[in-house]
Amino acid sequence: MKGDFMSFFSKLGIDPSQAQIDWNLKPSDTFGMFESWGGKERVKNKNERFYYFYIDNWELPARLNLMERGIKYARILARIMAPQELIDNCIARQGKSTTLDASYSIDDAVRSWLQKNIVDSDDDSLVLPIKADEEEDMGNTGLPDPEDPVPELQSITLRSRPLAFEEKELAGLIRNTGLFERRYNPEGNDNNYLVDNGEGSTVSDLTTNLMWQRSGSEINSIRTIKKWTVELNREIFAGYDDWRLPTFEEALSLATKTKNNRDLYIHPCFSAGQPFVFTTDKREPGGHWFVDFTQARVFWASGFNPGGFGRVCRNIK
Question: What is the mean pLDDT of residues 117-137?
């Protein structure tokens, strides 16, 4: 359904005649449309884009956002400055979210407000564009080289084997690691010591003896991320063929107590294109554990809806 104006799309650099809002698309629908090969409404055109509004409740206050979604492609285009009471009431009426624990679909009240104030209005002042990240320079890290003198370090050994555990066990497991996590262990340490391996693609943490990919994958299902990892090893990425997805402890070891210039709790040598990453750990009775660098937190979600990003690591021998 196209509105009479939709001028806000022009503000976002999108031709309004080539875009439309899908009012019925919910965060929980994206698996069936973009990832599930058995889905009745499977989208196969890689160039097709879908636009929908949803509420992000990861941080308070909750925000109303406009999402652009396609196959292997997802980004938030804009924040919509709707009345906070309207947003909060929408969340309250739905209760606990079932997708990522913090992503809500809009209700009729929010839709009516959007239709009047955004879609059918020629005033786009309530639409705040979120600029897409420009292609990152993955060259200069500012880190020491492996040959540089290394200060005295306190090495830590982290679990590398996958684990399945219930949500009630998470807090204790995080505290046992001693690592920083904003929700369950804010006093934990973030004392990793990164060095630049010199080939532009990886860095190594000498406290955990792990080598890390600096960039990562596009958003995808866990099934596709596993295939992507196999392909990296087949191609002998950065000279090695033993890359793997990290456990939640290993991924959490990269979290820092202060945000970088990309608004992430991770060293700026890492790409901002992977704000939350898959781990090898599974949630009982279902789901996967992720580490979110926008929050410096561990959370669980489906491995398919809406998926996640991959960043591989390997043990330094």
Answer: 75
Residue with tokens 């308070």: 60
pLDDT tens for 260-306 read: 988 899 999 999 889 899 999 999 998 899 999 988 999 998 766 55
Please answer whether residues 23 and 1 qualify as being in contact, where contact means their C-beta atoms are separated by less than 8 angstroms.
yes
**Before 61, cis peptide (omega within 30)?**
yes
pLDDT above 90: percentage of residues in the chain:
54
Q: Please answer whether residues 87 and 57 qualify as being in contact, where contact means their C-beta atoms are separated by less than 8 angstroms.
A: no
Residue with structure tokens 């897409």? 132
Going from N- to C-terminal start, the domains of the chain cover: 8-129, 164-315
User: In sequence order, what DSSP letters do the residues of the chain get, joined into one string?
Assistant: ---S--THHHHTT--GGG--B-TT--GGGHIIIII-TT-TT----TT--EEEEEEE-SSSSPEEEEEEEETTEEEEEEEE---HHHHHHHHHHH-S-SSTTTEEE--HHHHHHHIIIIIT-S--TTEEE-PPPPPP--S---PPPTTS------------S--EEEGGGHHHHHHHHTB-BTTTBTT-B----EEE-SSSSEEEETTTTEEEESS-PPSB-HHHHHHHHHHHHHTTGGG-S--BPPPHHHHHTTB-SS--TTS-SB-TTS-TT-SEEEEEEEEESS-EEEEETTTTEEEEE-SSSS-BB---EEE--
Can you tell me the distance from the alpha carbon of 183 to that of 124, in angstroms, rounded to the nearest whole number? 36
**Can you tell me which residue has the tokens 């190594």?**
204
The chain-wide mean pLDDT, for the chain, equals: 85
CB 67 within 8 Å of CB 113: no
Cβ-contact 199, 239 below 8 angstroms:
yes
